[in-house]
Amino acid sequence: MTDLSHDTDPRPRVTQLRLVVEAEDFDAALTFYRDVLGLTEKAAFEGDGDARVAILDAGAATLELSNPAQVRMIDAVEADGRPSARIRIAFEVDDSSTTTDELVQAGAQLIASPRETPWRSLNSRLHAPADLEITLFQELEEAETRHTRPGFTAP
Questions:
Q1: What's the CATH fold of domain 26-146?
Q2: Predicted TM-score (pTM) of this structure
Q3: What are phi and psi for residue 48, nearest 5 degrees?
Q4: How confident is residue 78, by pLDDT bands cut at 50, 70 and 90?
């Protein structure tokens, strides 16, 4: 096994995280994520046999890894204990309440209305087009402040 902890190459190995989702109703999913949620279309391609893809920019991407105990805690706080899907997409938004309402009006099913979490964000959970479970979150506190509280660590 290769030890990557001593890698001296300053270039990141990964330069983009792209989540690829098959959407049975492509037009409805595109309208929901691009036009209602507001993800910017970076590129779109069409091919033979009605093949279509749209690449939507969702801003910065992170990979959040959680152990089962953390997932249960998040589910308890964010969705009254309802277990989340194994993979859930979280979008940071400026106004969680308004965006939640807009997405419900656009066809998302509300799982849990916006509520303040112990980590000082306003989170809601929805079942959205393309059969995705999503969380909307609005940060209520600066990261610098959050890192000073018990249970949080700075990078």
A1: 2,3-Dihydroxybiphenyl 1,2-Dioxygenase; domain 1 (3.10.180)
A2: 0.84
A3: -60, 150
A4: very high
